[in-house]
Amino acid sequence: MPDGEVIHRAAAALRIALVGRAISRFESTxxxxxxxxxxxxxxxxxxxxxxxxxxxxDGLVLHTNLRLTGSWHLYRHxxxxxxxxxxxxxxxxxxxxxxxxxxxxxxxxxxxxDRTRHPGFGPHGPDxxxxxxxxxxxINRLYHYHDQLAPVCxxxxxxxxxxxxxNVYRCEVLWACEIYPFSPxxxxxxxxxxxxxxxxxxLLRSKLRHSPRITAAISQPGSFVRGDLAVYGRNGQRCARCxxxxxxxxxxxxxxxxxxCPGCQVHRSIETMQQMPGIDEVREMDPHPAAVKxxxxxxxxxxxxxxx
Length: 308
What we know:
Blueprint: H1 4-18, E1 25-28, E2 42-48, E3 51-56, E4 60-65, E5 71-76, E6 88-93, E7 97-102, E8 106-111, H2 135-143, H3 152-155, H4 166-176, H5 190-209, E9 247-249, E10 258-260, H6 270-274, H7 289-296
Antiparallel strand pairs: 1-6, 2-3, 3-4, 4-8, 5-7, 6-7, 9-10
């Protein structure tokens, strides 16, 4: 009978082994709901009582209720399982680890609530990992985004703009394009939108041709750096491009951390735009006190406690 402490320790071990890594295989004998695709990045592992959840970067969440009989184990490749395979309910493989759930009575997946998935916003955008993806359509959707005050870092996660980016490659694409993540979509021009979409498409296609861990281009689109990711998961470390310190923050109500470099990701920031010739100041939306308070609370207008 697993108690809360046992499940908490299991979640801690799974968190160390899985978070930030792409899965190479997912198998379940009793899954209710869609299965995560190979190549998706595990973003978090959480436990609540006898419930253990694993979330991926596309918003899919695996929920297991262990009750009296279930348990999670962690193995190296080739290591013998401590329970028979007939009791396996979920198997998740990465390059280094195999996470196995045994005898869980409840195994299901669901999508996290996200207002941008509402059908009123239209059909999903093109899948940028496909060679035949309509990039012009994604560029147009980003340029004419329904919420022009939304920060670009949030718009990139909207599947109505494009499919396949996810949180990891959102961070990498913004870094590659040197875009200030908290700039509202309204300040982007057509070239900015085209740069973001084409870079995202190039990264995703390169991931499929090679490995999930190919970083964004440092100098020009199409020039990729193999190895670890450029900014994702590197908070507190030096930026590979400018040497500044990579920061992390949570810019929205969702549990998706944004990794970015304040030293070189300055394109379209308010400070940069104010220094552009012919632009004396950035026009405020409304001088009304309520609007001033709203603007002051926007993520790109205040210091975030996580970002420091």
